[in-house]
Amino acid sequence: MVEQHVKPTIGEEDTHVRVVLRIPEDDAESF
């Protein structure tokens, strides 16, 4: 929770973006 309040670093932001992009793809495949 603390990480959410603190601005994420480039590495953390990149990882977060990848996870967000992967979730819709997995959901699309499920449907």
Structure in words:
This protein is mainly alpha-helical and 31 residues long. It is built from 2 helices and no strands. It has helices at 2-5, 10-30. The longest helix is centred in the middle third of the chain and has 21 residues, at 10-30. The protein is elongated. The model has no long low-confidence stretch (mean pLDDT 60).
Key descriptive features of the protein:
31 residues; mainly alpha; 81% helix
Give the secondary structure arrangement, pairings included.
Elements: H1 2-5, H2 10-30
Cα-to-Cα separation, first versus last residue: 31 Å
Any low-confidence stretches, pLDDT <50, length ≥5? Answer: none
Shape: elongated
Main β-sheet: number of strands, strand sense, barrel status? none
**What is the helix tally?**
2
Classify the beta-strand content into a percent band: under 5%
Structural class comes to mainly alpha
Query: H/E order of the elements?
Result: HH
Count of β-strands: 0
